[in-house]
Each structure stands twice: as structure tokens, then as C-alpha cells.
Amino acid sequence: MSIIMYTALVSNIAFFSQVLHARLPANLLTRLMGSWEEVLVSGKEGAQGVMIPTSGLAYYISPPRSLIELFTDPFHALFYIVFVLVTCALFSKTWIEVSGSAPRDVAKQLQNQQMVMKGHRETGMGSVLNRYIPTAAAFGGMAIGAICVFADFMGAIGGGTGLILAVTFVYQYYELLSKEQGGDSLDALMG
After folding, report:
1. CA distances from 173 to 90, 141, 163, 188 (A)
2. Are 17 and 36 a contacting pair, CB within 8 Å?
3. Are 166 and 158 in contact (CB under 8 A)?
4. At what angle do helices 125-154 and 74-99 cross, to 10 degrees?
């Protein structure tokens, strides 16, 4: 879920940056948000181009366009990597609070099922889980972000974020099919 929230954040920044650039190109806020340039995709005269960020925040949070750009503009690449990893980690930690997977929620669920942690009191289970769940969520978010960054650098079609979203959707359908087939979904798909 962190990658979806990351994509929404980046898309909104790019959208507002483009709107500001179209309306007020010389404004200081516009230059901080990002300047944009139209680049022809097909190379034909009169063809519709694609807007790409050339400076500002929109430029630095967009993936480098090629592996060569990693070496010609290392600050851009480093900023992009750090931004993706930190943003995904923070959104993952936020998501556990919103989705009911926070340590106190998990402790409550375990207590409702009469499950206890060996060597710990029932009342202290939340504090024990608090040591692990937020860290695991942040690390998981960073791992997803790292996969996206790697796919972006390797030039995956649709980008790293699109690749992660596609895999997530396919896996959700696989789980749904598995649940409907009573756990034999791989056999159902193959035969």
C-alpha cells in the first residue's frame, strides 16, 4: 500500500508543478516546484510531445531517464533513491496505524484469541510488539521502494511502481482464486 500512496504523492506534486509552470512560469514557487519541457517522442515534426521535469522538486523526485544519468547527475539519482526509500518507509508505518495492524491492535487481537507471548505478561504484549511491528513495516516499505528504484534504473516498462502494482494485483487475484477453490488454485490454473 505504501507504493500506492507514494505514487499518489508524486503524481500530485507533478500535476501541481505542471499547472504552476503553465500559468506562472517565472514565479519563484513555480521554479521550486519544477520547470517542465516538452520532448518529442516520435521525433516527427508536429507530433505531440511528452512533458518532462527539468528542474525543481518535480525533477528530483522523478526517476533518472537512463543509466547514464546516474553518473552524469549523481545528486538527482541519490535524491531520488533516498526520497523513494524514506517515503515508502514512512507511508508503511502510517499504513499500519490506519489499517488496524498497529501493535496495540495486534495485541488486542491476540488477547481476544487467548494467545499470549511466552515469558511476557498479557498487559505488556503491546510494548513488545511495538518494538518489532513498526520496524518491520518500515523495512518492508523500504524493500518495496528499493525494488521500484531498481526496476526504474533497469528501464522496466511502466516503471518500477507500475511493476509492483501489477504484481500486487495479480497476486491478489491468485489469493482470491485460491480462496474460492479451497486452496488448490495452482491446480485449478494448470489443469
Report:
1. 27, 22, 16, 13
2. yes
3. yes
4. 140
| DSSP 3-state of 124 | coil
Q: Dig out the grid coordinates for 176 from the structure.
A: 482470491
Q: How far is 102 from 96, CA to CA, in rounded Å?
A: 5
Angle between helices 125-154 and 159-180 (to 10 degrees): 120
- pLDDT tier at 15, thresholds 50, 70, 90: very high
Total residues found in the chain within this entry: 191
pTM for the full model?
A: 0.80
- For residues 162 and 156, is the Cβ–Cβ distance under 8 A? yes
Q: Is 161 exposed, middle or buried (0-12, 13-18, 19+ CB in 10 A)?
A: buried
| Grid cell for residue 100 | 488496524
- DSSP secondary structure, 102-126, as one string: SHHHHHHHHHHTT---TTS-STTHH
Rounded Cα distance, 62 and 54, in Å: 10
Neighbours of 2 (CB within 10 A): 24
pLDDT reading at 49 higher than 80:
no
* Rounded Cα–Cα distance for residues 66 and 31 (Å): 24
